[in-house]
Amino acid sequence: MNQGSSRPIRYYGKGIPYLHDEKVKGRLIVIEGPDASGRSTHIGMITSKLEAEGHAVLNTGLRRSELVSEGIMDAKREHMLGRRTMSLFYAADFADQLENKIMPALRAGYIVLADRYIYTLMARDEVRSMSKRWSHQLFGFAIVPDLVFYLDVEPEELVHRVFQKNTFLDYYESGADLGLSDDMYESFMIYQRMIAKQFRSMQKRYNLTIINGNRAIPEVNADLQKRIDHFLGSIQH
Amino acid sequence: MKDKFAPKGKLVIVEGVDGSGKSTQIRLLEKWLRYIGMPVFFTEWNSSEQVKEIISKGKRKNLLTPTTFSLLHATDFAARYERNVFPLLRAGYIVLADRYIYTAFARDVVRGCSPDWVRHVYGFAIKPDIAFYFRVPVEVSFDRIVKNRPKLKYYEAGMDLNLSNDPYESYRIFQGRIVEQYESMVRPEGFTVVDGTVDIEEQQRSVRQKMLEVLPQALRKKISVGALDQ
Fold first, then answer.
1. What is the pLDDT of residues A52-103, one digit of tens each?
2. Which of A22, A27, A61, A123 is the S-S candidate for A115 at Cβ 3.0 to 4.6 Å?
3. How many whole angstroms separate alpha carbon B172 and alpha carbon B167?
């Protein structure tokens, strides 16, 4: 199927100067949201449907670059890197995937479904008191996606879903490195609210579509699917 | 940033191309400072445990794009900066750095990253009290490096830039471009230029003279620049 003709890449900032006149044919769709918000389930369902319709689909996500991801995992386990360092580490991982995975797929006409993108990284930086300006310009080399969905789930509902998967709350997803509360549950709730607030504040600037993720999976998925179908339909004309 | 977090220590860094003699000079400076009893910490480019390995893995596979390459070096820099450099400066140490942000400004820009972007990425790093730049003609640094090395490494030679299929020719062009970047920074960044072609002792004498300017007043009178006094 046709996702439209080749067009120049749109970047958030200065872009990647050494890629001259780069053109892409594919589309980039991002699903953002906290852990246990259903991101990967939705991406799986959307991928199946798009593939059934005949689209070539590539799934990608944060911390998946072959090069950097292991190093990040080690560093997280051992809590030995500072905030700025972690932030740059994630940015390096993202850059590697953007250039070695996402861009080749977009050039070839794939629909790329990204499980999280730069917004999560920026939100995390922001609550860890790095300036918005710094994070924003750091990711000036990122491609502007065609669609960005944010699965907004109430922390009360989220914590319930987390406990259905695991018996404990993740250290970083609870913002435990921030010293918000000695009580892990409390810390999780505060942290998730802080992150959600960041996403809402990014809504306009980054054109995020906020999706009510408190509903049942099939209902949320139908909502996402409808919006994606509408977008793909609109670009074929 | 000013008052509360203003470091008590001094940050002294050296820059220059490979073979400019900067590492020899900063090591001699370090020895002298330790000898006269100053608290000193030494750090060098691309040396943090966690990041170094990833960078060398990427280099082995030749799969680093300029942006990733730049960000990995920034990660290495931040790791050393957050863990050592900044806390030690605040504690009053003299921190000596063999290469600092200007290495990234030069190399990453030559590799094609936006100059503004690279400067922004490193925007959190404080300005050094002294930035020594070791100026040598490309031919001189080239001879120094090539004599000691049977083979140039891929990234070291700038082979990723497709300047030439011959590693030595590529290296020469690459280094020449880095020198251009350094030279363009001399004035805006306030580099202290050292002539890297004169004798080691003579260079060290001027390095120590400059260093005296940032040492505490009381100390300056008591110490000499060592055997280098004429």
1. 999 999 999 887 777 777 777 777 666 678 899 999 999 999 999 999 999 9
2. A61
3. 9
- Burial (CB < 10 A; 0-12, 13-18, 19+), residue A233, is exposed
CA atoms of B98 and B116, how far apart (whole Å): 23
Backbone angles phi, psi at B187, to 5 degrees: -75, -55
Number of neighbouring beta carbons within 10 Å of residue B14 = 30
CB-based contact (8 Å) between B81 and chain A? Answer: yes
The DSSP result for A53-103, as a single string, is TT--EEEEETT--TTTHHHHHHHHHHT-S-HHHHHHHHHHHHHHHIIIIIH
Distance from C-alpha of A125 to C-alpha of A135, rounded to nearest angstrom: 7
Asked if B48 and B56 count as a contact pair (C-beta separation under 8 A), the reply is no
**For A105-141, how does the pLDDT look when each residue is reduced to its tens digit (9 = 90+)?**
999 999 999 999 999 999 999 999 899 999 999 999 9
CB-CB under 8 Å, A141 with B67: yes
The verdict on a CB contact (< 8 Å) between B82 and A85 is yes
Determine whether the interchain pair A18/B113 forms a contact, defined as Cβ–Cβ distance below 8 Å.
yes
In sequence order, the 6+-apart residues with CB closer than 8 A to the CB of B209 are B225
**Strand residues in A147-237 grouped as ranges (E):** 147-152, 209-212
CATH 3.20.20.70 fits A7-235, yes or no: no
Integer Cα distance of A196 and A37 in angstroms: 12
C-alpha to C-alpha distance for B29 and B216, rounded to whole angstroms? 16
The reported pTM is 0.91
Contacts of A99 in chain B (CB under 8 A): 65, 67-68
The C-alpha atoms of residue B17 and residue B33 are separated, in whole angstroms, by 24
Superfamily of the domain at B14-225: P-loop containing nucleotide triphosphate hydrolases (3.40.50.300)
Whether the CB-CB separation of A109 and A56 falls below 8 Å is answered with yes
Chain center to CA of B17: 9
Q: Which of B57, B72, B83 sits opposite A92 (nearest CB)?
A: B72
Query: How far apart, in whole angstroms, are the C-alpha atoms of residue B178 and residue B166?
Result: 18
Structure tokens at A65: 């670059």
**Best mutation site among A67, A83, A101, A130 for testing chain B: the one with the most B CBs within 10 Å?**
A67
The single-letter code of the amino acid at A76 is: K
